[in-house]
Amino acid sequence: MTGAESLLRTLLAGGVDTCFMNPGTSEMHFIAALDRVPGLRSVLCLFEGVCSGAADGYARATGRPAATLLHLGPGLANGLSNFHNARKARSPVVCIVGEHATPHLKVEAPLTSDIQAFARTVSNHVRTAQSADDIGPATAETIAAAWGPPGEVATLIVPADYSWSKTEILGQSIAPLAVPFPCNQALDAAARLLREPGTAILLGGKSVNERALKAAGRISAATGTRIITARNVAKIASGRAFYPAPQVPYFPEAALPFLADIQNLILVEAERPVSFFAYPSTPSYMTSDSCRDFVLAARGEDGTAALEALAEGLPPVVLPSIAIPKAPMEDVGLTLDHIGLTLAALLPENSLVSDEMVSSAGKILDHLKSAAGHEFMPVTGGSIGQGLPVATGAAIGCPGRKVVALEGDGSGMYTPQSLWTMARENLNVVTVILVNRRYRILEIEMQRTGAHGFGEKAESMLDIGNPDLNWTGIARSLSVSATCATTARQFSSHFRDAIRQTGPSLIEALLE
Amino acid sequence: MTGAESLLRTLLAGGVDTCFMNPGTSEMHFIAALDRVPGLRSVLCLFEGVCSGAADGYARATGRPAATLLHLGPGLANGLSNFHNARKARSPVVCIVGEHATPHLKVEAPLTSDIQAFARTVSNHVRTAQSADDIGPATAETIAAAWGPPGEVATLIVPADYSWSKTEILGQSIAPLAVPFPCNQALDAAARLLREPGTAILLGGKSVNERALKAAGRISAATGTRIITARNVAKIASGRAFYPAPQVPYFPEAALPFLADIQNLILVEAERPVSFFAYPSTPSYMTSDSCRDFVLAARGEDGTAALEALAEGLPPVVLPSIAIPKAPMEDVGLTLDHIGLTLAALLPENSLVSDEMVSSAGKILDHLKSAAGHEFMPVTGGSIGQGLPVATGAAIGCPGRKVVALEGDGSGMYTPQSLWTMARENLNVVTVILVNRRYRILEIEMQRTGAHGFGEKAESMLDIGNPDLNWTGIARSLSVSATCATTARQFSSHFRDAIRQTGPSLIEALLE
Questions:
Q1: Does residue A101 sit at the B interface (CB-CB below 8 Å)?
Q2: Measured on CA atoms in the order B21, B26, B32, B33, is the torsion positive or negative?
Q3: Other residues' Cβ atoms within 10 Å of the Cβ of residue B38
Q4: Radius of gyration (Cα) for chain A, nearest Å?
Q5: Which of B32, B382, B476 sits opposite A110 (nearest CB)?
C-alpha cells in the first residue's frame, strides 16, 4: 500500500471516518486512496474555512473527531480562524495537511511555506511524517492527541513523496485516554463550600449538558448554591427540558452585578469569567476582587460526574413549568422577538442550533429558554465565520437531528461557501440570516470603547447595506432553496415549512 | 491626539493613503479617527482575504504600499493565504492588526491568540507597538520595512489601549531606500557571458516590464542571447506592444526541454526555475545539471537599469508585426480559444489583467500575446483566492485603467466577497469566470502525480458541478451586473459591452 493508504486505514481503524476536505496536488494520493480503502466519508468544501469549521461542528455535535484534509501552508492558513474557534471549544480535530515532496522543499517553489509555523498557532500537537513507514504511526499519535482530553486540533503534515511511496506499516490505534474523575480533595472542598454563603457553581466545558444541569439543580435546591453557566463553550443544553441555569451576561455592565455577590466560585471545566473585550473603564475579570476560585473539575476532567457525586442522595428537582409559546402570525414588521418566539414555538426537539447571531443574540437567547430541549453551539473563540460551517459539520455528524443555523448577515459573509456543501450533501440545515445591513455589534462597540466615531467615514465602515446583500439570491445560486421574510407571519410560515423539509433551506429575515 | 490618530497621520505622512479593512472592536479608535484625520481612503471588505489580496493587487498595480486593517489573530489568519501570495510577489503592504488592550492579555479571553506567530508566517518585519507614544515611530518603521527593497508584508500590531490613549508623538517618515544598482562585477560577468554560446537571460521580479524587455530585446538581437521570462512574478508587460520574450512553461515536461540547452543562465531578479510541484519522475530544478547561474541583479536590485546598462549603444529592435485579431462571432459552443481571441481583439490598451485561470491559462495566455499592450498579474504564491481580490486592489490603485479578472469557477469561490467591494466602490473591473465545473487542474495532477485515482469517490472530490454554481446569480446577489455566455458570439458581445461599461460586471463563461 502507499503511505496515503496507510494514513486512510489508520484513520478508519482509529474511528475517524469523516473528512472535510479541499485538496490540492500534494494530496492526490490521499484522494486516489478513497476508492481503494472504503469507509471514509469525504466531504468536499469550496473553501478551507468551511472544512475547519465543519470539523469543529462535527466534534461539538458528536463528541468525536473528524479529519480535515488541506493543501499546504496556504490551505491550512484559510482554515486557521475556525480552528482557533475549535481550539477554544476544545474540539478534537485531526488536521491533515499535505506538504511538497521532501526533495522539493529546498528549491523554494511558489507554494513553499513553513507549515509547522502556521499549524502551531492553533495546534499543540504538530507532527510532520518522517517517511512512508512513519505515516501510520504518526496518524495514530495525531488521533490520540486530538482526543485529549481535553480535545484539541492536532496536526499531521504529510510530504507528498511519503504519501506516494510504498509501506507495509499501519498505525496501531491508541485508545483515547479516559476522562479522569477529579481528585477527592477537590470534591471535599467543594462540598464544604456548598454550606457557605455566597457560593456559586460555574458550569463550563463539556458540563453544560443535561446530566450536569440536573445534578447542579439538585445541589442548588438543597443548599441554595447559585448555578450559572459559561457562555463560550462547545455546546449548551438549552430549552424548557433542562434545568434553567442563567448564563454569565456578555457585556461587563451586566456581568459585574450578576457576579458581584459571589465569594466562592466553584469552577466546573471553566475559568473565572472575563470580559470578551477590554474597555477603558471596566476590569477584565468579571468577579469581584474578594471572590475566590475553587476548581472542582479542570478542563479535561469529568465535571459532570463530579457534580453527580456532589449531588448524591439529594432529592430530584421538578423543572419549572414553562408555557409553550405560539408562533406569531401578525402581519407586522419582523423583529428579533418574533424570530425568538417562532423558534420557541417550532424548534424541533433535540435540534442542534449553531449560533453566530452576534448583536442579535440577546433577545433570541431569551426566547430559546422556552423552546423544546435542544443543544446550542455558541461562539467559542470569537472568530467570525463559524456559524454556517459548524452547522454543516453538525449535520454531517448527526443526520437524524435538525440543525438550525442562526446567522448574522455580516458574519454569514465570511464563509458563505458552506451553503454549497449543505446542498451537495443534502443536509438537514435551516439557516436563518438575521438581516440588519450593519455591523451592528461594532456600532455598539464604537460607543463602548469610547471611540465615539460616528462621522461619515466611520459610519460607512459599519454599513454593509451599501450595496445590499441579497441572501436569497446567494443561497439559490449555491443550490439552497431560499425564502425571504419581512413580517412576523411570513417568518413563522417559512420556518414551519423549512423544518418540515428534508435538505437545506435558508430564510432571509429582513428585520424591520 | 489618540494613538490611533498618530497611526493614521503617520501612514498619510508616509504616503500610505489607502487601507483595505475589516475592523472589529479593538480597531474602533482607528475607525473613529478616519473622520478626524482626513485623507485616508478606507475600503471595506466583507472578508479579510479580500483585504490582503487587494493590498497585493494595489501594490502590484501601483508599486506603492496600501495598508490593511485586520481584527486580532483570527482576522489576520483569514488574510494569510493572500499575504503568502503578496510575499512571493514582493509586494509592499503595511499590515495593521489590532490587539486586545494590554491588561486584558493575561486573562485568556476568547479571541486571545499569538498574533506575532500568525504574522511571522508571512512577514519578516513584525512589530508590536509598546505604548501610545510608540505607535507613530513603529508605524514609520513598518512603512519603511514594507517598501524594502524588495517589498514585503510588514506587520504592526496595535494594542487597543495604546490606540485609545493620548500621545503627542507622530512617526517621522523614513524615506524608502533607493533600489540599488547591481555591482559592476555582476555587469562585467554578464557582459562576458553574452558572448558565450548557450547563454540565456531570465527576467523576473520587477524586471518583466516594458523597459527591461526592450533592453533585453536589443541584447538578444545583437548577441543571439535567448531572453526568457519567469512565470510567478508580480506583473508582466504583455501583448503586441512589447518585446515577446517567451515564458518558462508551467509543467516540467515542457520546461525541461525549453531550458535544456542553456549553459549559462543570467538571473535578473529571478531564481533558477523550479517545478511548481514535485512529481515522482521529474526533477525539482528545471535547468540542466550543467547549467550555471549568474546573478545580474538580485531581488531588490534594479535589474531593469542593469539590462539597460548592458544594452547601452546597441541598436533598437523593431517589434514583429502582429495582426490584430478579430473577435469571433460564431454561434458555436464557447471554447477557451474563443475567449482568448476575444481578449486579443478587445482588451483595452494599458489594461491590468488579474490571472487565476489555473487549468484554463495555457490557451488564453497564447492569445494574450496578440492583445494590445497590457500588464498581466499572475499567480505568485499559488495560494488560490487571489484573482478577484488582486483585481479589486488594482482597480482602487489605478482608477483610470480597465481591470480584467480572468478567474476559474473553482478558484473564484475562495474569495467571492470581492465582488461586493467592486460594486460598493464602483470599480472598473470586468470579471470573466471560466466555468468548467471541475477542479480541472487536479484531474491533470491526479495523473501526473501517479495517483491515478479515478474511482467514483476520487472523481467526486474533483467535481464542483454537483450542484452547479450559478455565478451570474452570485454576482447579482452582490450587486455586480452579470451576463452568461454559452457561445462565441455571446461572449464577444458581452465582453464588448462590459469593457464599455463603467463599474464592475461579470461574465459567466460556460465552456462547451
A1: yes
A2: negative
A3: 10
A4: 24
A5: B382
Judged by a CB distance cut-off of 8 A, whether residue A111 touches chain B is yes
Q: Are the C-beta atoms of residues B109 and A275 closer than 8 Å to each other?
A: yes
pTM equals 0.98
Burial (CB < 10 A; 0-12, 13-18, 19+), residue B313, is exposed
Distance CA A106, CA A127 (A): 19
Q: Which of B280, B458, B469 sits opposite A478 (nearest CB)?
A: B469
Cis check: omega of the bond before A399, within 30 degrees of 0:
no
Stretch (H or E) spanning A389: helix A387-397
Give me chain B's average pLDDT, please.
97
Spatial distance between the Cα atoms of A478 and A505, rounded to a whole number of angstroms: 11
User: How distant is the Cα of B379 from the closest Cα of chain A, in angstroms?
Assistant: 9
Residues B379-395 pLDDT 10s: 999 999 999 999 999 99
H or E element: which one contains B268? Answer: strand B264-268
Q: pLDDT at residue A93 above 90?
A: yes
For residue A188, give every residue at least 6 positions away whose Cβ sits within 8 Å of its Cβ, in sequence order, or none. none
Question: What digits encode the pLDDT tens for the residues B170-229?
Answer: 999 999 999 999 999 999 999 999 989 999 999 999 999 999 999 999 999 999 999 999
Determine how β-strand A292-297 pairs with β-strand A264-268: parallel
Q: How far is CA A202 from CA A228, A230, A318, A374, B178, in A?
A: 5, 7, 21, 20, 60
Most B CBs within 10 A among A111, A126, A250, A388, hence the mutation to make, goes to: A111
Count contacts between A and B (CB, < 8 Å): 335
Number of CB atoms found within 10 A of residue B148's CB: 20
Query: What is the pLDDT of chain A when averaged over all its residues?
Result: 97
- Which residues contact residue B10 at a Cβ distance below 8 angstroms, ignoring those fewer than 6 apart? B135, B136, B139, B140, B143, B170, B171, B173
**Residue with the larger pLDDT of the pair A453 and A206:** A206
> In this predicted complex, what is the ipTM?
0.98
Rounded to whole angstroms, the Cα distance separating B269 from B302 reads: 8
Q: Are A32 and B383 inside 8 Å of each other by CB?
A: no
Amino acid at B62: T
**In the structure grid, which three cell numbers stand for residue B149, read together?**
527593497
C-alpha cell at B445: 495532477
Where residue B478 falls among pLDDT bands split at 50, 70, 90?
Answer: very high
Q: In Å, how far from its chain's centre is CA A150?
A: 15
Q: Which tens digits make up the pLDDT trace of B327-383? A: 999 999 999 999 999 999 999 999 999 999 999 999 999 999 999 999 999 999 999
A114 to chain B: nearest residue by CA? B121
Query: Strands A199-203, A292-297: parallel, antiparallel or unpaired by DSSP?
Result: unpaired
Instruction: Give yes or no for A52 touching B (CB within 8 A).
Output: no
Whether A445 sits inside 8 A of B25 (CB atoms) is yes
Q: Are strands B481-485 and B505-510 parallel, antiparallel or unpaired?
A: parallel
Is B275 touching A (CB cutoff 8 A)? Answer: yes
**Hey, CA dihedral for A3, A40, A50, A478, is it positive or negative?**
positive
Take residue A338 and report the three cell numbers written for it: 418574533
The span from the CA of A440 to the CA of A446, in Å, is 10
C-alpha torsion sign, points A331, A336, A339, A341: negative
- 478-497 of B, contacting A, C-beta below 8 A: 478-479
**Contact A82/A386 with Cβ under 8 angstroms?**
yes
At B437-477, the pLDDT tens digits run: 999 999 999 999 999 888 999 999 999 999 999 999 999 99
3-state helix, strand, coil in chain B (%, to 5): 40, 20, 40
Domains observed in chain A: 3-164 (3.40.50.970), 184-310 (3.40.50.1220), 336-510 (3.40.50.970)
